[in-house]
Amino acid sequence: MTTYLLAGGGTAGHVNPLLAVADGLRARDPEAEVLVLGTAEGLESRLVPERGYELLIVDKVPFPRRPNAQAAAFPARFRRAIAQVRDHIRAHGVEVVVGFGGYASAPAYIAARREGVPFVVHEANAKPGLANVLGARRAAATGVAFEGTRLRGGEVVGMPLRREVIELDRAAARHEAAAYFGLDPARPVLLVFGGSLGAQRLNEALADSWGDVLAAGWQLLHVTGERSQLEDPEVPGYALRRYVDRMDLAFAVADLIVSRSGAATVSEISALGLPALYVPYSVGNGEQRLNAASAVAAGAARLLDDATFDGDAVRRHVIPLLKDPQRIASMAKAAETVGTRSGTDNVIALVDRALASS
Predict the structure, then answer these.
(1) What is the pTM of this model?
(2) Do 338 and 300 meet the contact criterion of CB atoms below 8 Å apart?
(3) Which residues lie across from 54 on neighbouring strands?
(4) What domains, with CATH codes, occur in the chain?
């Protein structure tokens, strides 16, 4: 029986691929012990126990960005976090560590090295985070989700994805999906979404242009986010939802997507072979634009500028595409070459290799 320690958390971008790999390890060997290392404050504190895994806690110690009191206290706090992870490794007989970035990963990498335990790094974003940049220098293996990610020793393995996405047969599920959203399976559907909290820019643009989408002969499935106050016009062909817990069905009924380009979003859309128009979120370090780069280069997607994305932008860029089925078909064909549904298995293969080499 092998004991694995999966480290990561803070955001869904770190937690979801971690849980996908955890599920893959447990499905392959029900006798394996799969433990998760995270902080008490992150999303993992809720999602990991809900999925049936034991969560081992490590202090949240952000890397200092400027000289201040927190920076002065950082060395001692970070040493304490490393010690906590070393204690966990010894207490549970951990044989391999897998890190997915976030606050838990940096001390996990150092603790594993000091305990003589091999560790594997997985980076979800095209622009890697600091913890994984440091971890990749000594990792037994490093996997990245996107081509072109600059990470030492990085191998493109794709993104570990949710089981419902991996197993989705879009054609077989289309009629069920259309019925679920009250749409016509025989007519094309534009899916617009901005994540669980929505994207105000996308919502406002579609509030001004949904009539143009319908006039182009398309239906619209618009997932606005739970906090949105956007009014539902309640017209045939326009399905407005605050939140969708069956995104697999949303993908099944979609023929074209307009969305942000978070790592998981791009990976799921690409894995399913769907054409997309990405509107990268402009706040941050530019990783969303980079996440979409490989899909854009392959001709499977286009980029639209967040700062100028409004109803007129939909009419200038989206509506002409809706009226060009040959172009959409070409994008869909290109999309089939970009993504992979085997990200979970690929990461597990890296873990096996790390164990074998140790």
Answers:
(1) 0.90
(2) yes
(3) 35
(4) 3-161+341-357 (3.40.50.2000), 164-335 (3.40.50.2000)
